[in-house]
Structure formats: structure tokens, C-alpha cells
Design goal:
Radius of gyration: 43 Å
Number of strands: 9
CATH superfamily of the largest domain: Bira Bifunctional Protein, Domain 2
CATH topology of the largest domain: BirA Bifunctional Protein, domain 2
Strand content: 15-25%
Largest sheet: 7 strands, mixed
Distance between the termini: 84 Å
Oligomer: single chain
Order of helices and strands: HHHHHEEHEHEEHEEEHEHH
Shape: rod-shaped
Strand order of the largest sheet: 1-4-5-9-8-7-6
Number of domains: 2
CATH class of the largest domain: Alpha Beta
Bound molecules: phenylalanine
Helix content: 25-40%
Length: 350
């Protein structure tokens, strides 16, 4: 029986040596060491042996089991390592393959202009406010000293939602809202960037939706000189230190006096060119001293308080600053246009 056992043991070890996969090895384990495996079968035959023989054969049987098990364990380790190596080899990355291009997002030129203006005014102590785009007539017109039959309320210019609500035609209603909301009627310094709507036919210089940035400062002894000073800082910051501003009389129902502000043409430096229509000046914003009726209507005593307001088109600033000739480019989402404003220095366009 001993010889037979030895034979089985050698046979098992030689098969284990030749096995090449984990699957084969687990089958071999069953074949030899399983409950009904070839080695276990010897146990059954042991009853015929004498006690002395049992002891000896038991030792041999155990030795065979341990040897086969050791051989299996060793072979399993090797097989695992081999499988891992094969897997790693198969999964090697080909780093010479061209990568996928990741498209970077960037800021829209209008967002850039608004951010820059906000930053500047915040540095001068202004807050940033916002108001609804669907506005009440009360704020878009009445509180701004535009009574019901005023010609500037011409229906043609506005998108009405109901008889009393419309898409705001300007950001000026935020002036009235800000003053109204200030219950203690304290001093105000605020700017408000936002979308505005007018019933214009779209062309290179008109868009039915555009962006305004409103400014309002209310306090004691606020004068035109303050308005001029603030706007001078604004223009120099946006268009360069050597820009000048010019104030021309104008008319807005909610300011008195009202002004049109021009900036000296940055293309020709005042000599005259196509951008400034040979005048040397480019119109950039409307402004004025807040009309006493507006102050009064929002609960501010015009004998105590004065203020200035201005409204500037964000598209207008961006067009002048970046040399954009068609206002529609802001809204057509042409990536080539947008990428122009988000180029990293030195990057070559495709
Ligand atoms: N709201 C005016 C416009 O849309 C601009 C403006 C704002 C004028 C504030 C004076 C004061 O043209």
C-alpha cells in the first residue's frame, strides 16, 4: 500500500508541476485531496492494517497530503503571478496614441465686461443690485417720472406681458426699487447689471434683448461734479488712462439735468475716423441728476437728498473695447467668436 501511495503522490506532484492554470490546479486538488480524492481513498483501506502498520501508514499518508498540498500552494502562487503578468501585458497603455481634446469653457465677453465694471464699482463702495426682468409699469415708467400719456412710453418700444407688466425696457426701474426698499432712506451707492428688452428689429447695432448697467448714488450734496468724477474713473478703467469724457445736454424724464456722455475715440485719438464718424467722440452712456419727482416718489426728500444716475450698454462697452462691429455676435453663440475672448496668451488658433 505504501508503494501505491508513493506512486499516487509522485503522479500528483508531476501533474501539479505541469498544470498551467488556476482552474487545472483546483481540479487537481479535488482529484487527490478531495473527500473522494485518490489520497483520501487510502484511509478507507486502513481498517485492514494492524495497529503498528496503521501508525506507519498514517504518517506516510499525512506526509503525502502535506507534500501534495505544498506543491499545490506553490503552483497556485506561480499561476496567480503568471495570470497577473499576462493581464498587465494585455492592458498596457499605448501612450503614443493622440489624446482626446478637452474643450475649455470661457467667459462670454459680456460677462467679462460686467465683471470688470462690478469690480471697479465695488472698489468705490457700490453694492450690486438686481431687479426683475418682467417689470411692473409702475417701476419701469411711473416711478421714473414717465406718466401714463408720456410719449417715451410708446407701446411700439416695449414687450407687454399684460396691460400692466412688460419686459423691462431699461435697468432704471432698479433705481426706484432700491430707493423704495431702503426703509430708513439712507444714502445709496448701487450698480445693477441686467438684461433689457425693446421691440427693435435686430441688425448690426440693434438687438431686441440687450444688457444695461445702471448706476445710482444718492446722498447729501451729491452734485454733477461727483457724477463726472465717477464716470471719468469708469471710462479710464474700461478704455485706458488717456481717454477723456465729454458731457452733452440730453433729456431723460427721470433725470434733471440729463446728460449724454461721450468718450474720446480710442482708434483715432480724437482726430476723426469711421468709428467716431469723424467727430473724435463716441457716445457711451446716458446719465443725469436724479429728478426730484423720482426721489420724492420713492420716499426721499429732494430738499435733503440729491443723487446721480447713469445707464450704460454693456454691449456698447464690449464693442468699443474689443472692436466688435455686429451686436448680434453676442447672441449667436458662434464658438469661433467666443474663443477670441478666451485665448491663452501665445496660443495659436486652429
Ligand atoms: N435708462 C436710460 C436708457 O435706457 C439711461 C439712463 C439711465 C439715463 C440713468 C439717465 C440715468 O437710455
Amino acid at each position: 500500500m505504501n508503494d501505491e501511495l508513493l506512486k499516487i503522490k509522485e503522479e500528483a506532484i508531476s501533474k501539479i508541476d505541469k498544470a498551467s492554470s488556476l482552474k487545472d490546479l483546483s481540479e487537481l486538488r479535488l482529484e487527490y485531496l478531495g473527500k473522494k480524492g485518490k489520497v483520501s481513498l487510502f484511509t478507507k483501506n486502513m481498517s485492514t492494517l494492524s495497529n503498528e502498520e496503521k501508525k506507519e501508514f498514517g504518517k506516510a499518508l499525512n506526509d503525502a497530503k502535506v507534500s501534495i498540498n505544498d506543491a499545490l500552494e506553490e503552483a497556485i502562487l506561480k499561476a496567480k503571478e503568471k495570470e497577473l503578468n499576462e493581464k498587465l501585458e494585455k492592458e498596457t497603455l499605448d501612450i503614443t496614441l493622440p489624446g482626446l481634446k478637452v474643450n475649455k469653457g470661457g467667459f462670454h465677453p459680456l460677462t467679462k465686461v460686467i465683471d470688470e465694471v462690478e469690480e471697479l464699482f465695488i472698489s468705490m463702495g457700490f453694492d450690486v443690485a438686481s431687479g426683475p426682468e418682467i417689470e411692473e409699469e409702475l417701476y419701469n415708467f411711473e416711478k421714473l417720472n414717465l406718466p401714463k400719456n408720456h410719449p417715451a412710453r410708446d407701446n411700439q418700444d416695449s414687450f407687454y406681458i399684460t396691460s400692466e407688466r412688460l419686459m423691462r425696457t431699461q435697468t432704471s426701474p432698479v433705481q426706484a426699487r432700491t430707493m423704495d426698499a431702503n426703509e430708513e432712506k439712507t444714502e445709496i451707492r448701487v450698480i445693477c447689471p441686467g438684461k433689457t428688452y425693446r421691440r427693435d428689429d435686430d441688425d448690426a447695432t440693434h438687438s431686441h434683448q440687450f444688457t444695461q448697467i445702471e448706476g445710482l448714488m444718492v446722498g447729501y450734496d451729491i452734485s454733477l461734479a461727483n457724477l463726472k468724477g465717477v464716470l471719468e474713473v469708469f471710462v479710464k478703467r474700461m478704455f485706458g488712462d488717456d481717454r477723456e469724457i465729454r458731457l452733452r445736454p440730453n433729456y431723460f424724464p427721470f433725470t434733471e439735468p440729463s446728460l449724454e456722455i461721450d468718450v474720446s475715440c480710442s482708434k483715432c485719438n480724437g482726430k476723426g475716423c469711421n468709428i467716431c464718424k469723424n467727430t473724435g467722440w463716441v457716445e457711451i452712456l446716458g446719465a443725469g441728476m436724479v429728478h426730484p419727482n423720482v426721489l420724492r416718489g420713492c420716499g426721499y426728500d429732494p430738499d435733503k437728498y440729491t443723487g446721480f444716475a447713469f445707464g450704460v450698454g454693456a454691449e456698447r462697452i464690449a464693442m468699443l473695447k474689443y472692436g466688435i462691429s455686429d451686436i448680434r455676435s453676442f447672441y449667436t453663440n458662434d464658438l469661433r467668436f467666443l474663443e477670441e475672448f478666451n485665448r491663452v496668451e501665445g496660443e495659436v488658433l486652429k
